[in-house]
Amino acid sequence: MPDKKPPFWFGGVAASMAAACTHPLDLAKVRMQTNKSEGPRPGMLRTLGTSISSDGIRSIYQGLTASLLRQLTYSMVRIGSYEAIKDRLTNGRKPTTSQLIISGAVAGGLGGIAGNPADIVLVRMTTDALRPPEIQRGYRHALDGVLRIVQEEGVLALMRGWMPNTIRAVLMTSSQMATYDVCKNFFLTTRHSELRMQDGLLLHAVSSGIAGFVATTDVIKSRIMARKTGSITDMMRTSLRNEGPMFLFKGWTPAFVRLGPNTVLLFVFLEQLKQLWIKSNTLAATS
Question: Does pTM top 0.90 for this prediction?
Answer without folding.
Answer: no
